[in-house]
Amino acid sequence: MNLIFEKSVKGRRSCILPKCDVEPVALPENLRRETAPRLPEMSETDVSRHYTELNKQVHGVNCGFYPLGSCTMKYNPRIDEEAAAMEGFTNVHPLAPKSTVRGSLEVLDTLRADLCEITGMDGMTFQPAAGAHGEFTGVLLIKQYHDSRNDTKRCKIIVPDSAHGTNPATAAMCGYQVVNIPSAPNGCVDLEALKSVLGDDVAGLMLTNPNTVGIFDENILEITKLVHEAGGLCYYDGANLNAIMGVVRPGDMGFDCVHLNLHKTFATPHGGGGPGAGAVGCKEFLKPFLPHSAMMEMPGRIQVRAFMGNFLVCVRALAYVMTLGREGIPEASTNAVLNANYLMSRIKGTFTPAFDRICMHEFVLDLSQYEKETGVSALDVAKSLIDWGMHPPTMYFPLIVHEALMLEPTETESIETLDWAADVFRKLYELGRTDPETMHGAPHHTPIGRPDEVKAARSPIVRYDFA
Q: Where in the chain is the domain with CATH 3.40.640.10?
């Protein structure tokens, strides 16, 4: 399809502005543009048709199965969007006096109490703008705690090799040395490897449970105990909370602080970049180090973001929590676990699970042997799924599994959809053995074929060349 600039017709307009009813004020000369912005000129009909055409070329949860899961795109109830769109929330000003925004403050207080209950924490801030920002804030809490005790020799953060890539980046940004420990053959933390790196120079451990291969670590209490005995603190990456919310709490596992991706687990999609919210919760002894907020009188505290973060994301999250309630929250997580295990059991016998055991909300397929036998890679399978109307799952992650495909169906998919998805995987398994060339060239029925991904990453075209 043509770009919107290519559809532009000089002089064409899409709206008629009403007559100005206030006195016009001209910008100072030094603030004015020397040339007018080169914007596309189109009729309202042309604009509508252009974006409708674009919409037809993308795949979302409203189009079909999207097994990227809660980490990127799970179904979010419409009622949450309607709540966040209420004028009483959208028109509030961040500098408004507290006496005039009591409803907004009640939203934050209620959500804070609910999320502290869900996570087993005692305090929480909503300032961080996203998950990685929440990680940064959480590790800073650990750093400030140790600094407040003059325990400055603690310069290391332990990160398992199956961790999200943001974990080691966060630790490094906070000035820590990252100590990587390997996973055991069962996909969980290797206790002996952990013990070998613990000492009085360890500030803490960053971990998510269930981990990135979808397994709940049965040694979690031993893990956090070992770290605490060494004087370190335990940080919980909340990316996989969708599997356990309402069933087990990070605080009860021994974690001292946690970040929550409100834009994942709690019903605000972040596919496309945001906005998000990376709420950070902590135990009582870390509350004095939580970021300062313009809405709360806490002199001397740092801020990690202006005001109270992305407030409307918090409104969505509260609507989600209140809609599901005490019974619905654990039902969502247990259904997510049920769906993942059901789909994995249906696929078994074709593609091989990396860890053939009960999983949590997601599971990882290991296609390395299949690729050796057929020449068909995980990328080929992922691209072939597109032709069947299915969005590809996460590819080549975690790095500890070669030729990995990670599937997370989430809690809202029906058994009919999961049966259909399993059948598609079975058909592609056979196609790779009989006609691998077809899969090498997939997708075949999309607006564009398989792009040169290296060139797209290294030489992206991000602006229109008017020349």
A: 79-322
The C-alpha angle 413, 450, 446, rounded to 5 degrees, equals 55
What's the whole-number mean pLDDT along residues 248-266?
A: 94
Q: Which CATH superfamily is domain 335-457 in?
A: Aspartate Aminotransferase, domain 1 (3.90.1150.10)
CA distances from 346 to 384, 400, 419 (A): 19, 24, 7
Q: How far is CA 448 from CA 1, 383, 387, 441, 443, in A?
A: 10, 12, 12, 12, 8
Q: What's the pLDDT tens digit per position in 44-84?
A: 999 999 999 999 888 888 889 999 876 667 888 899 999 99
Q: What is the rounded CA–CA span in Å between residue 217 and residue 186?
A: 9
Classify domain 79-322 at the CATH topology level. Answer: Aspartate Aminotransferase; domain 2 (3.40.640)
Instruction: Check the CA dihedral 158-361-84-391 and report its sign.
Output: positive
- Per residue in 263-280, pLDDT tens? 888 987 665 556 789 999
> Residue 165: pLDDT above 90?
no
High-pLDDT (> 70) share of the chain, %: 96
Q: What is the pTM of this model?
A: 0.91
What are the strands, taking DSSP E only, across 163-269? Answer: 177-181, 202-207, 233-237, 257-261
Is residue 5 within 8 Å of residue 37, measured between CB atoms? no
Chain centroid, CA 271 distance in Å: 8
pLDDT at 181: 96
Phi-psi region of 327 (alpha: psi -120 to 50; beta: other; left: phi over 0): alpha
Q: Give 33's Cβ-side CA count (13 Å radius).
A: 4
- H or E segment and range at residue 50: helix 44-56
Q: How confident is the model at residue 422 (pLDDT cuts 50, 70, 90)?
A: very high
Where in the sequence of the chain do the CATH 3.90.1150.10 domains occur?
335-457
* Degrees, nearest 5: CA angle 132-134-139: 95
- The number of angstroms, rounded, from the C-alpha of 15 to the middle of its chain's C-alpha atoms is 38
Long-range contacts of 340-343 (CB under 8 A, 24+ apart): 340/214, 340/407, 340/408, 340/409, 342/415, 342/418, 343/407, 343/409, 343/418, 343/421, 343/422
Do 270 and 130 contact (CB within 8 A), yes or no?
yes
